[in-house]
Specification:
globular, membrane, EC 3.4.11.-, 32 strands, five-stranded mixed sheet, disulfide bond, binds zinc ion, Zincin-like fold, binds ligand BES, glycoprotein, alpha+beta
Length: 960
């Protein structure tokens, strides 16, 4: 998923370079176009180069503002697009288009601003558009038109004023490049039966619809779209609504097909989608007659890789219809798997697009983790069909509500489709704990931004980050739990009804939830939904709640990973929260409490010496918990004597809280390490995964120091029983357990046992891989275990194993298998292989562009690969930045991954140097990640000073 970025002033130079590139592109396109026009219908006629004006910094002109004025509102569009899937005489792929938009004048104006980017607009009588008045109104003549590159507008100045309440029709013709840039209307290539295939697809969110046709490209500017696609015979065209007419026609002597789609519902531009491909599909009708289709490459559909997605789509739609108490708003639901896709998936209304790994499942080669990914992504995107698409946030500053909401309810939908998978509990790993990790830094930010703080495409992209997704999900889950799920769902359904086909802001949702609370007898809140929630969304961070069971005192404090860090950002709430605390006393569930001030006595929390208190029961709240030492001791002994008295997710919470409290120097590190002792008896996935993440962090911190040996020895001791347990229940690793999450635990057992050197593990994985190498068509390794086996074998081997893995990667026809190999290839310990692999990421023939940065990330997680990847990224920063464009969301992940291991003063100085050296180019969506990396490295250096020795001593004593 995309993590955020914002445009810095240092981007000015880059922006100018890009403007120059845009100009060259436009000139090139006009040449292309002039060639094209001779072949095409007269409609797609003449174009010339547009004048491009840079934006002066201090300008107050409306065309220099990133937000559209409120003078015009679009009603409907007629858009016809014609992508060419063969190169033209100039060796370019292009599309041509014609588009009209009917808009109503809301306020008197002599100016039309409409988004348009990288489109080469045809000139009619000296202007780049035609304007007509409707219903007998005469439109003023166009005075002048130009293209404002920075704000991406076509600017149309008129001789006279448009009249309020009157409707007008604005018409344009244009050409664009069908580039392989994964943005707007773009092309993707793949091989099938040795033949290169090309498809045309779209990705409009957040600001790329303007690259496909001129439009009022803001989420609040909803309209109805009438779309027509012209495409080669033998290909299929898809869009948001159902095709109503497909006919073979001759245009300008070319025998082609025209597909006309029915009008869409009133919707936002960022949800528009078109696809032209020769894909096939499988389909089904749901109970209410909604047509559900899964589209993919022919081979993938023939291999039945779409079956799982088709099977789960119906129950998920059914679940959300019930949950939202609103019917699915459209007559069809297409979902398509694309070979090149920048994000994991995109919720285009009625035509959801996915990476292949997020939609296609092949039981013979995909792991159960791949299957889980599919059910959660499908559930997430289908949740958006209502929340996000039917009701849309007015502006991107509220993106957290859209993405946080879908990230929360995706678990509910997935749980309905796969009720035995324990999906709801997994939120604490994938949302709550991931959000804590970034929200405990001073460089974090509040969930909700002010509307005026988010303007440029770069600032918008920056909103797609862990805070919006994961913290958003965690605080909404907390809200749903303290309101109760039924009150939450009732308020939600009224909110959807009120704002259907329109847009809203987050306080509208609070208002409707409050109404639901007011209508429900028996539910008591200490404050209104607004007052409680504002504290969670308008200030960054979260509290650590400390319970002193000797006195019953409960207090809260802003949790910061670096205890001495200075928080520059002011909060109107003083970094205090209204905290709902569910809790238990020695296994008995107690009444929920609210902590409404800095500190208060809660008598029931004062307990006797043989009792313990556990707060944040079922981890429904977005906060960490600390106790007095006596209570910690009693919790530890409960874990060791009978851990099952403590709910599974709270066992994970105890581990994660303890480690993070220790990292923040709030408790002693040995206390945190002691929470791992009970793992000898633990068989559940969620606590093991939480432990693994914290231990991995330790691995990365210590694997270059003398602590490593002692730590390895301790972990080997801890994981051995788990390894033996799974060996026994899986008849010596020949089967996998039946429980879904047990299968995950089995993978943890194998990977941790191999990495710590448990006897027999590495031999096993090596022999499985060897067998495969001897007879490649027959891969007997269970799909669940493949990632671990491939990685271990390639790490232990040399060029022969690597080259074999590479060959298998290139041959893979199932995307999930290709990912396993691609990540395992990064496990080699041979530097030249790693360097060559890094070079491959620059070659889209070898590593797809969509996969380049994650591959670098895999290499960076390898102890040998990390410095190589860091050097590679530093050396090529400029190149990446230009390749992906300043608006891309990939930079934050890239910076996070290559700096993840940093913990020395030297590494910190390198980071700061990097920041300085590239100030001119800028960091786009990586700006925040770089800030976070500096903060995390600083914290680690300090922490290591006081903690390395006790950690070493503890591991030595425990592994003896
Ligand atoms: N709307 C996003 C896709 C998106 C992300 C568009 C970033 C533009 C920039 C979509 O709903 C989404 O969140 N996809 C996730 C998967 C999801 C299961 C968390 C993704 O792409 O990772
Ligand atoms: Zn989403």
């Amino acid at each position: 998923m995309g993590k955020g970025y914002y445009i810095s002033k240092h981007l000015a130079t880059a922006a100018m370079v890009l403007a120059a590139i845009a100009l060259v592109t436009i000139i090139a396109l006009s040449v292309v176009y002039n060639r094209e026009k001779s072949k095409n219908a007269a409609k797609f006629s003449k174009a010339t180069t547009l004048p491009v004006f840079p934006t002066p910094k201090t300008s107050n002109e409306p065309w220099d503002k990133y937000r559209l004025p409120d003078t015009l509102s679009p009603q409907y569009y007629n858009v016809t697009l014609w992508p060419r899937l063969v190169k033209n005489a100039n060796g370019m792929y292009i599309f041509t288009g014609i588009s009209g938009v009917m808009f109503t004048c809301e306020k008197k104006t002599d100016l039309i601003l409409i988004h348009s980017n990288k489109l080469n607009l045809t000139v009619f009588k000296g202007h780049h558009a035609k304007l007509t008045g409707l219903s007998g109104v005469t439109a003023p003549a166009i005075k002048t038109t130009w293209f404002q590159s920075e704000t991406q507008y076509l600017v149309i100045q008129l001789e006279g004023k448009l009249k309020p309440g009157k409707d007008y029709w604005l018409y344009t013709e244009f050409t664009g490049e069908l580039a392989d840039d994964l943005e707007g209307f773009y092309r993707s290539e793949y091989m099938e039966n040795g033949e290169k295939k090309i498809i045309a697809i779209t990705q409009m969110q957040a600001t790329y619809a303007r690259k496909a046709f001129p439009c009022f490209d803001e989420p609040g500017m909803k309209a109805v779209f009438h779309i027509t696609l012209i495409h080669d015979r033998g290909t299929t065209a898809l869009s948001n609504s159902q095709e109503i007419k497909t006919e073979n026609v001759i245009i300008d002597g070319m025998a082609i097909t025209r597909t006309i789609f029915g009008p869409t519902k009133r919707m936002s531009t960022y949800l528009i989608a078109f696809v032209v491909s020769d894909f096939t599909y499988i389909d089904a009708k749901d109970k209410k007659g909604v047509l559900v289709r899964i589209w993919a490459r022919k081979k993938a559909i023939e291999d039945r890789q779409g079956d799982y997605a088709l099977n789960i789509t119906q129950p998920i739609l059914e679940f959300f219809e019930k949950y939202y108490n609103t019917s699915y708003p459209l007559s069809k639901s297409d979902q398509i798997a694309l070979p090149d896709f920048n994000s994991g998936a995109m919720e285009n209304w009625g035509l959801v697009a996915y990476r292949e790994t997020a939609l296609l499942y092949d039981p013979r080669t995909s792991a159960n983790g791949n299957k889980q990914r599919i059910v959660t992504v499908v559930s997430h995107e289908l949740a958006h069909m209502w929340f996000g698409n039917l009701v849309t946030v007015k502006w991107w500053n509220d993106l957290w509500l859209n993405e946080g909401f879908a990230s929360y309810v995706e678990y509910l939908g997935a749980d309905y489709a796969e009720p035995t998978w324990n999906m709801k509990d997994q939120t604490i790993l994938y949302d709550l704990q991931s959000a804590f990790a970034v929200d405990s830094l001073t460089s974090s930010h509040p969930l909700s931004r002010k509307e005026e703080e988010v303007n440029t495409p770069s600032e918008i992209s920056e909103m797609f980050n862990t805070i919006s997704y994961s913290k958003g999900a965690a605080v909404l889950k907390m809200l749903s739990e303290f309101l109760t799920e039924s009150v939450f769902a009732k308020g939600l359904s009224n909110y959807l009804k009120q704002f259907a086909f329109g847009s809203s802001v987050h306080s509208d949702l609070w208002e409707y939830l409050q109404k639901a609370v007011d209508q429900t007898p028996g539910i008591k809140l200490p404050y209104s939904v607004h007052e409680i929630m504002n504290r969670w969304i308008l200030q960054m961070g979260f509290p650590v709640v400390t319970i002193d069971t000797r006195t019953g005192n409960v207090s809260q404090k802003h949790f910061l990973l670096e205890p001495e860090a200075v928080v520059d950002r002011k909060s109107e709430f003083n970094y205090e929260w209204f905290v709902p605390i569910k809790w238990m006393k020695k296994g008995q569930v107690q009444d929920q409490l609210w902590l409404l001030q800095k500190s208060a006595i809660h008598k029931p929390m004062k307990v006797s010496k043989n009792e313990w208190v556990l707060a944040n029961l079922h981890v429904s709240g977005y906060f960490r918990v600390n106790y007095d030492l006596g209570n910690w001791e009693r919790l530890l002994s409960q874990l060791e004597s009978n851990h099952q008295v403590i709910p599974v997710v709270n066992r994970a919470q105890i581990l994660d809280d303890a480690f993070n409290l220790a990292r923040a120097s709030i408790i002693n590190i040995t206390l945190a390490l002691r929470t791992t002792k009970y793992l000898l008896h633990e068989r559940e996935y969620i606590p093991w995964e939480a432990a693994l993440r914290n231990l991995n962090y330790f691995f990365q911190l210590f694997d270059r120091s003398e602590v490593y040996g002692a730590m390895q020895a301790y972990l080997k001791k801890q994981v051995k029983p788990l390894f033996e347990y799974f060996g026994t229940i899986s008849s010596n690793w020949t089967t996998v357990p039946s429980g879904h999450t047990d299968q995950f635990t089995q993978i943890i057992a194998l990977s941790l046992a191999c990495s710590t050197g448990v006897e027999g593990c590495r031999e096993l994985t090596r022999s499985w891989f060897k067998k495969w190498m001897q007879n490649p068509p027959n891969n007997a390794i269970h799909p669940n275990l493949r990632s671990t086996v491939y990685c271990n074998a390639i790490a232990a081997g040399g060029a022969e194993e690597w080259n074999f893995g590479w060959q298998m990667f290139q041959k893979a026809t199932v995307a999930a298998e290709a990912v396993k190999l691609r990540s395992a290839l990064a496990c080699t310990k041979v530097p030249w292989l790693l360097n060559r692999y890094l070079e491959y990421t620059m070659n889209p023939e070898k590593i797809r562009k969509q996969d380049a940065t994650s591959t670098i990330g895999y290499i960076a997680s390898n102890i040998i690969g990390q410095p190589l990847a860091w050097d590679f990224v530093r050396a090529n920063w400029d190149y990446f930045f230009k390749l992906y464009g300043t608006g891309s969301f990939i930079f934050s992940g890239l910076i996070r991954d290559v700096t993840y291991r940093f913990c020395t003063p030297f590494e910190l100085s390198q980071l700061k140097r990097f920041q300085k050296d590239n100030a001119e180019t800028g960091f786009g969506s990586g700006t925040q990640a770089l800030q976070q990396a500096i903060e995390k490295t600083t914290a680690k250096i300090k922490w290591l000073e006081g903690n390395k020795e006790p950690v070493l001593q503890w591991f030595l004593s425990e592994s003896a």
